[in-house]
Design brief:
Blueprint (H helix, E strand, L loop, with lengths): L9 H7 L33 H14 L4 H8 L6 H8 L8 H8 L2 H13 L1 H11 L3 H12 L8 E2 H10 L6 H15 L8 E2 L12 H7 L15 H14 L9 E5 L15 E2 H6 L3 E2 L17 E5 L8 E4 L1 H9 L3 H14 L19 H13 L13 H13 L10 H9 L4
Antiparallel strand pairs: 1-2, 3-5, 3-7, 4-6, 6-7
Helix pairs in contact: 5-15, 6-8, 7-12, 8-12, 8-15, 9-10, 10-11, 14-15, 16-18
The protein binds calcium ion (CA).
Calcium ion binds next to loops.
Length: about 425
């Protein structure tokens, strides 16, 4: 979770700004990006050892039942791709504020287009939702945020990208494992090698599934015998819906509510580790921000559902209660801002309101990686437990921030700001 990270795969997060995930654990991440282009012609020779590496992988593939013909087709024209390496090693210095991300992820234009597509794709969406009990608006929201409704899917040849990552041992065996899974997809005949495209990191098609996830969860929605998440919308919807269903999407239950916290609220409780039944939060005086009334889940059988409170921009920004369905969305892509974008876009597609509370746009969040490392380092010098300073403000770092805030009499909201760093700089540990 970028800025709110709970996973250890920091280097991916830094590469992708908003997307932090361990490849093997997630469905889709990292997304294709609009500025991500594959070189048309590969002119550089492959580095020493690459061709031998491919020969060894092909031998493994044969042992796993993939035919020589399939392998010849899959590897035709495949070279080491230097652009993939460049993208995998890039580490942007600055994150975006969460409100900037949400402004574009849940823009008016995207809401409008999503509404049109809900109508145009009514039949295919209805089938996918009917079989999985995942609402059409949620399926469309994921489609919209993963690939802008199929417009941005990445143009890399997946075999080439994964062979390159595998050879470079990017995240250990990630590339090699995904490559073998991709070869199985080609052998099964779901897609032709030339059409198997995606992001530099292996997220494929409109659903942005990585190959191992495709093998488990991709579905044939239109009954033509192929699981085509590249060009067949019915297959994209069935696959997204089935994935969420498999990740325990609870039918009829909400994803989240924006909430109003009581004045007496203990901010130490606004933490992903502090999971309580909805009823307990309601008893503590937490109400819906929209109308000051009861929480959505307080009125249905999910009243005991384990839920958490999140303050993604600290005490001055909007507050949320996250229900179990929020976790199902995070299984798709484990980034808090992503989960919030999907759930809010789905809500807007269902004619829900924008957030009631404005983002604190005049606050300066700690967006620089160098400064986040400095913050972690200084908290460590003050004897707070932050682990290794890595520039990722995860749960542990947030807890250290809360402890520090509480110690100096501030509201312990765990939010890393430039102001907090300045204060730490002025009070060096002795
Ligand atoms: Ca199909």
């Amino acid at each position: 979770m970028h800025g709110y990270s709970q996973t250890p795969a920091g280097s991916l997060a830094k590469t992708l700004l908003l997307c932090l995930c361990a490849g093997a654990l997630i469905a889709t991440c990292p997304h294709a990006r609009a500025d991500e282009t594959a070189p048309a012609v590969q002119s550089e020779p492959s580095p020493p050892g690459f061709d031998d590496w491919v020969v060894a992988v092909r031998a493994d593939a044969v042992r796993e039942g993939i035919s020589s013909q399939s392998l010849d087709d899959a590897f035709r024209g495949v070279h080491f791709n230097a652009r993939v390496v460049e993208l995998s090693e890039s580490q942007p210095e600055f994150d975006r504020p969460i409100w900037d991300y949400l402004d574009s992820a849940v823009s008016d234009k995207r809401i409008e287009r999503g509404g049109e597509l809900l109508g145009e794709e009514r039949d295919a969406l209805g089938r996918a939702a009917g079989e999985s009990a995942v609402p059409q608006s949620v399926v469309v929201a994921i489609w919209g945020i993963e690939s802008n409704y199929g417009e941005i899917t990445g143009r890399f040849n997946i075999i080439e990208a994964l062979a390159t990552l595998g050879f470079k041992q990017y995240h250990g065996t990630y590339g090699r494992e995904q490559l073998l899974a991709a070869l199985k997809i080609l052998q099964a005949g779901d897609i032709a090698p030339a059409q198997m495209t995606g992001s530099w990191a292996g997220a494929m098609g409109q659903a942005q599934f990585i190959p191992t996830v495709f093998l488990r969860y991709a579905r044939d929605g239109n009954g033509d015998g192929k699981r085509d998440i590249w060009g067949t919308n019915a297959d994209v919807f069935a696959s997204i819906a089935d994935y969420l269903h498999a990740k325990s999407w609870s039918a009829g239950a909400p994803c989240f509510d924006e909430v109003r916290l009581p004045e007496s609220f203990d901010y130490m409780q606004a933490d992903a580790a502090s999971e309580k039944p909805v009823s307990e939060w309601a008893n503590a005086g937490i109400v819906s921000a929209a109308d000051g009334g009861a929480l959505t889940s307080a009125a249905n059988p999910d009243v005991e559902a384990p839920s958490t409170i999140a303050l993604p921009a600290g005490r001055l920004g909007p507050a949320f209660i996250l229900y179990p369905n929020f976790k199902a969305v995070l299984a798709y892509n484990n980034a808090f801002s992503y989960g919030l974008a999907v759930c809010q876009l789905a809500k807007r597609l269902d004619h829900g309101a924008p957030f009631k509370t404005s983002w604190p746009r005049d606050q300066v969040p700690l967006l620089s990686r160098t400064e986040r490392i400095e913050l972690q380092t200084m908290l460590g010098q003050h004897k707070y437990d932050v682990g290794d300073p890595d520039g990722v403000i995860g749960q542990r770092a947030r807890r250290a921030i809360r402890d520090y805030q509480r110690g100096i009499g501030l509201v312990p909201d765990g939010y890393a700001t430039v102001e907090l760093l300045t204060r730490l700089r002025e009070t060096p540990a002795n």
